[in-house]
Amino acid sequence: MFLFYSGVSLGMDCSPFARPWMVHFSSGQTGVLLNKWWVLTQMSYHDGSQKALAQLGVDDLSGQSDGEQQIPVDMWINHDPYSGYRRRKRSPLHDLALVRLAQPARLTPQVQPVALPTHCAQSGELCVATGYGSRSGSRKQQCLVQQVLSESVCRQLNPMHWSPYMTCTGSHPSAGGNCMSGSSILVCGGVLQGVDGFGWLSEGCPAGKPDTYSKVCLYRRWIDSTMSSMTPTELPTTPPPFTLPPETTTTTMWWWDHDFVS
């Protein structure tokens, strides 16, 4: 069974470009590419500026990565209820934002969208949390194997802030907990299941606290409807080929070929 333990360096370096859906923003947070126009991230890390730069295809933040793309952010769309919860109390509920890029990403081996969930992750399922570095100062993409915990265990360990809209996980004792800086993304079997927006719940990832994520499967309607209604219409990159109209046959009647003698 996986448990929760404190840790600093946490996990290990991911295989190069093994997580091509990862996105890093110049404002510090992590996101995940849903398609060539849209990135899902946490609202709580956003400083209100629309001028953030999205970095795609980044394996190591300490230098330029092969195939890296830097695309300005065009629009942030916060999940509507989040700001209300935040005003009333210190709550992480619905801490999600959709980010529209100013231009579509080029899909390459280093830049690929993640699959969205058709069902929620099950208790006991093994997943991988991915983020950029840790609080120890690393700038490389880190991967940490975690196990999805049951709702009853999560509620018991975090009674003040638990909600069915959260997924919580534990890590093997040898790996430690998730202390990645700038948050992390939880993917189970190649399918997106969690976006970490609850770093303050762990407060330094001490022992006995699960890692907590927004349960993406419960936000599919919002994600799908937003992307469907607000994706720009793309112009064709090349004009359609010119084709000549079909040839027509014209029959000419030569009047002098006819005998008009009565």
UniProtKB/TrEMBL annotation:
<dbReference type="Pfam" id="PF00089">
    <property type="entry name" value="Trypsin"/>
</dbReference>
<dbReference type="InterPro" id="IPR009003">
    <property type="entry name" value="Peptidase_S1_PA"/>
</dbReference>
<protein>
    <recommendedName>
        <fullName>Peptidase S1 domain-containing protein</fullName>
    </recommendedName>
</protein>
<dbReference type="InterPro" id="IPR001254">
    <property type="entry name" value="Trypsin_dom"/>
</dbReference>
<feature type="domain" description="Peptidase S1">
    <location>
        <begin position="8"/>
        <end position="228"/>
    </location>
</feature>
<keyword id="KW-1015">Disulfide bond</keyword>
<dbReference type="InterPro" id="IPR043504">
    <property type="entry name" value="Peptidase_S1_PA_chymotrypsin"/>
</dbReference>
